[in-house]
Write a structure and sequence with these properties.
The complex is a heterodimer. By secondary structure, chain A is an alpha+beta fold. Chain A is built from 11 helices and 10 strands. Chain A has helices at 7-23, 36-52, 71-83, 92-105, 108-119, 234-247, 253-270, 282-312, 319-341, 359-367, 377-388, and strands at residues 125-128, 144-148, 151-159, 169-175, 186-192, 198-203, 212-223, 227-228, 272-273, 276-277. In chain A, α4 runs antiparallel to α5 (108-119) and α7 (253-270) runs parallel beside α9. Chain A is globular. Helix content of chain B is 54%, strand content 13%. Chain B has helices at residues 7-23, 26-33, 41-49, 68-80, 87-101, 104-115, 214-246, 258-286, 292-322, 329-341, 346-358, 362-367, and strands at 121-124, 146-155, 162-167, 170-175, 181-185, 195-204, 206-207, 248-249, 252-253. In chain B, a hairpin with a 2-residue loop joins β3 (162-167) and β4. In chain B, α4 runs parallel beside α7 (214-246). The longest helix of chain B has 33 residues, at 214-246. Chain B is globular. The chains are: A alpha+beta, B alpha+beta. At the A-B interface, α3, α7, α8, α9 and α11 of A face α7, β9, α8, α9 and α11 of B.
Chain lengths: 395, 368
């Protein structure tokens, strides 16, 4: 165990820190006032800036636009981004899930074609996994793909597709062999969202926003060259993607959590409670300290996981604890924020009196989705029970 | 940067695990638990032979000179084995305090025999108010180093040769046979670590040279206690998963049922998260990092709640068996409760964290 930075890591940190100090945009606190599209363009611009500075997809191989950074440099990267109060990047799924999947399973042509455009945010990606009848039981999905010459013809429906409304490309899991056992007949493909027959419809969430979509495929022709990995072995590819989603994706959330914690601490000092700042209230202090500690433990769990991945090469099922931890922590945190802010916490961005443009009412509602998206807490606990602890399969 | 164990750290951990499994299986812990002081002289000399009694202390005093991360790994294993007796009290609590607060002569006198396995020691801190805050210590030594007053919850005092008494005007090494000193057992939940009340009446003590070392010693002891708790949690988890795999109801192992499986998953999450927190705290202490005190409080806060919860879940999954004396879980559960309050419970440490990161937040200045 050695948490001191090596000479290389120290140089990396110094270089990044100095780059961030002159490049992190300061005006973005007000971005929430803008519409979803305007906000998205803001994040896209920021990602381009990172890319041009050589800071997007740092762990990716150099020949595809990354810098071949070690896993520990990635840890440093997210810590520094959080420390600098930097915004998130736009192409969240492309950077965190789909790029790493293409790197692990894709052909040379696919890597050349897609990776750079993920990094510079020229092409935004979404992920077509869940279906109306295949949520937690993902392998039960029914979207059908039949080979016709050198194309697959795809019919079916995907749902809960984040960023579907503005995505250029989508990683889909489809059924290529309906006769095979459910895990054995699946294939992963890359779909151009502008293909004829792709129809994206917005799904309004409980937050009022339409971050998610339904995506319909009607006789959509996908070149066979767009298959990732082997035909009918898509389950392994999909699990590879999901391992990234559960295991390492959470690292980027530090940025948001630390920013939220800092802001809530600030509000605790400026909010009055029983004639004194709320930060002096013994109960509020307990709750804030609990949040602070849990955010720190999330970071430490993540660091240990990265160390383990750097010795084994791939994220494993233990990653499920990261997913449970970040999602349930955010729900507890948002509740503490509500307790601190009282009725102000419920105000939406339209109210003149809203604190932080209604961020807190949005955050509270949005956090309910955390324990559902990317594999429900129940599924994560099944994974730990069966794959980590060796208990019998429960379903 | 690497948040995994080095090869030599893994060797230390594995050999400790083997040592405790061989020398202190749970049957031995149960046997000692029924004795007066839960202490066994033979086991003690074996601990010394392994170098465990001097693990983190300088070689010039007969120690092994390893770091705090190594200490944490050892304590995780002793916790897993539910090692009874004064090892934690002597080596971790008293040893660290002498190391941090004693002069070279005092270390030669008090620390070296601990390293060599020749003596045992304890620390008397708590008073009637049961507060772990040093500001709540009232006992005062007279100008000539005589102590009069009462200390409570003094661990393993009956087998200690030296008791380090924390007064508000210094830390004093007191011979356990010194005049005016009387001990009385305070039987509690944890049968493996006995506690005593300590009365002092004009009892002579030797003042340790550097009382400012107290917080550092407390930090090390707190992190080591958390490691011991993590070992106990791991054992409770292992026992519970094993039981869930073998116990059958409705024709299948109860671990097949998600109501059971999810509790096991939570035990795993709580154990692993406590482990991450204490590894970091050990590292921060070793490096004397600026956030070391916060890191220790985070670890103790989280593990204090987690070790209790892990025990609750383990007993529940064991059903009626979990409620029997025969089952080992309650032994860990008792230790977990004692450890939960030792050096401050979760509430105590949340307040500490608040003082360190809420009160000192840069926003205080900005909004003022």
């Amino acid at each position: 165990m050695d948490l001191n930075l090596s000479i290389d890591e120290q140089q990396f940190q110094d270089e990044l820190r100095s780059w961030l100090s002159t490049n992190v945009p300061r005006e973005w606190e007000h971005a929430r006032e803008q519409s979803l599209d305007v906000r998205f363009e803001f994040h896209r611009k920021w990602q381009r800036q990172l890319f041009e500075g050589g800071w997007a997809g740092i762990s990716w191989p150099k020949e595809y636009g990354g810098r071949g950074a070690s896993l520990m440099q990635q840890v440093i990267f997210w810590q520094e981004m959080a420390r600098a109060g930097a915004p998130q990047m736009a192409n969240v799924l492309g950077l965190g899930l789909i790029g790493p999947t293409i790197i692990a399973f894709g052909t040379e042509e696919q890597k050349k074609r897609y990776l750079r455009n993920i990094l510079n945010a020229d092409e935004i990606w979404c992920q077509g996994f869940s279906e109306p009848n295949a949520g937690s039981d993902l392998a039960g999905l029914q979207t059908d793909a039949r080979l016709d010459g050198d194309h697959y013809v795809v019919n079916g429906q995907k749902v809960w597709t984040s960023y579907g409304w503005l995505a250029d490309w989508c990683e889909v899991v489809v059924r290529t062999d309906p006769a095979a056992p459910k895990h054995k007949g699946l294939t992963v493909m890359l779909v151009d969202m502008k293909s004829p027959g792709v129809d994206v419809r917005p799904l309004r969430q409980m937050t009022g926003e339409t971050e998610f979509n339904e995506v319909f495929f009607r006789d959509v022709r996908i070149p066979a060259a767009n298959v990732v990995g082997k035909v009918n072995q898509g389950w392994d590819v999909a699990i590879g993607t999901l391992m990234h989603e559960r295991g390492s994706f959470g690292a980027g959330l530090q940025i948001i959590y630390k920013r939220n914690m800092d802001r809530l601490t600030e509000l605790a000092h400026s909010t009055q409670r029983n004639g004194a700042p709320a930060a002096k209230d013994p109960i509020i202090r307990q709750k804030l300290a609990q949040c602070y500690a849990e955010i720190e433990i999330m970071r430490l769990n993540q660091m240990r996981a990265f160390s383990r991945i750097s010795s084994t090469g791939v994220p494993g099922p233990e990653g499920s604890i990261q997913k449970i931890f970040w999602s349930e922590l955010n729900q507890r945190f948002q509740q503490v924020a509500q307790e601190l802010l009282g009725p102000y916490g419920q105000l939406s961005s339209e109210a003149d009196e809203a604190i932080d443009n209604g961020t807190w009412s949005y955050g509270y509602l949005r956090s309910r989705g955390n324990t559902i998206e990317a594999g429900t807490s129940e599924i994560q606990r099944n994974i730990i029970g069966h794959f980590v602890l060796g208990l019998p399969r429960s379903y | 940067m690497q948040f995994g164990l080095t090869e030599s750290q893994e060797i230390l951990r594995d050999s400790a695990r083997k040592f405790f499994a061989g020398e202190c299986p749970i049957a031995e812990a149960r046997r000692l638990m029924e004795t007066d002081a839960a202490y066994d002289a033979k086991l003690w000399s074996k601990l010394a032979e392994q170098g465990y009694t001097g693990i983190i202390f300088p070689e010039e005093y007969g120690g092994v000179g390893l770091g705090i991360v190594e200490l944490i790994l050892l304590l995780e294993e002793s916790g897993r084995a539910l090692l009874p007796g004064p090892f934690f009290t002597t080596v971790v609590q008293a040893g660290s305090l002498i190391d941090a607060a004693g002069s070279p002569e005092q270390k030669k006198k008090y620390l070296a025999p601990i390293c060599h396995g020749e003596t045992r020691a304890s620390v008397a801190f708590l008073e009637a108010n049961a507060s772990w805050d040093p500001a709540d210590i009232h006992l005062e030594a007279s100008a000539d180093g005589k102590l009069t007053g009462e200390k409570l919850f003094v661990p393993d005092a009956a087998v200690a040769d030296t008791i380090l008494v924390v007064a508000h005007n210094g830390v004093f090494a007191v011979d356990s046979k010194a005049p005016g000193l009387t001990l009385k057992p305070m039987p509690g939940m944890d049968l493996t670590r006995r506690q005593y009340s300590l009365k002092l009446k004009n009892t002579p003590g030797e003042k340790l040279a550097n009382p400012a070392g107290l917080p550092r010693a407390r930090g090390i002891a707190t992190a080591a206690l958390v490691a011991e708790m993590v070992g106990g949690m791991q054992r409770a988890l292992d026992l519970t998963v094993e039981y869930a795999k073998t116990r059958k109801q409705f024709g299948k192992p109860i671990g097949t049922f998600q109501a059971v499986q999810h509790q096991c998953a939570d035990m795993y999450l709580e154990t692993e998260s406590s482990r991450s927190a204490v590894y970091y705290a050990a590292w921060a202490l070793e490096q004397k990092a600026p956030d070391a005190a916060t890191a220790v409080s985070i670890a103790k806060m989280y593990a204090s709640d987690a070790s209790r919860t892990v025990g609750n879940r383990g007993i529940q999954i064991h059903g009626g068996m979990g409620f029997t004396w025969e089952n080992d879980l309650h032994l860990y559960y008792r230790r977990a409760k004692a450890s939960e309050t030792m050096f401050g419970d979760a509430t105590f440490h949340r307040e500490r964290i608040a003082r360190q990161v809420i009160d000192t937040s840069t926003f205080v200045a900005k909004t003022a």
